[in-house]
Amino acid sequence: MKEQTKRRFKLAGVILLLIVSAVLMIKLMPWFYSLRLPEVREEFKNYVASLGWKGVLLVLGIQVLQVVIAVLPGEPVELLAGMTFGIWGGLAICIVGLLIGTIMIFYLVRLLGKGFVEGIFSKKEVGRFSFLQNTKKLEVLTFLLFFIPGTPKDVLTYVAPLTKIRPINFFLIAILARIPSVITSTYAGQTFIDGEWWKTVGMFVLMGLIGIAGILINNSILDKNNGKERPKK
């Protein structure tokens, strides 16, 4: 009876979270994508500045929300943080937001299990990381996957808690491995708002090239560890 009640609570939790996530996604998705427009970013920057310390909490809250609701894009938030608070201030806010969101996801997944994750992502997406369940290099591979650009980090953040990885190790890995990519975004944000266009464009070009290389490396790692590496000619 207790086990049945526990299952019902888990199911209710999954349904409730999915409903809340869907509502927030529908409401916020247009605004998140509108942040790509310079005039929207400038308007938001001025608004945040007018709030004082509450502006820090606002951007922090948006970052946490972006981490937890996986479909929301992260780059616009990081760019905004850089525009509003500079490279290092924006980095600090983004990292704290990443940490809070990652902790929330970790314990939510540990509580609700694999069915919850597969309710958010497809079985194919989740299955690509199934090798993490049996590898002896769990922490090393998790760090590499978070570090390499092109990895679907939203999926990885939800899948990794299904493994035997220790909470503190996962939190450190998820944060430290993502610092370089966050810095590039906050740097681009600050140079953009400062009118240093050539630096912004240069950073985006560099990020694009690194991203393409990262996707290739990421696919190679996933294919190799899933036993699908193509035979050498």
UniProtKB/TrEMBL annotation:
GO cellular component, one term: plasma membrane
Topology in membrane: Multi-pass membrane protein
One protein family per Pfam: VTT_dom
Compartments it resides in: Cell membrane
Residue intervals of the VTT domain: 72-190
Keyword Glycosyltransferase attributed: no
Coarse class of the protein's main subcellular location: membrane
Annotated keywords: Cell membrane, Membrane, Transmembrane, Transmembrane helix
Ranges that cross the membrane: 12-33, 53-73, 85-109, 138-156, 168-189, 201-222
Family assignment from sequence similarity: Belongs to the TVP38/TMEM64 family.
UniProt-recorded name of the protein: TVP38/TMEM64 family membrane protein
Organism: Ligaoa zhengdingensis
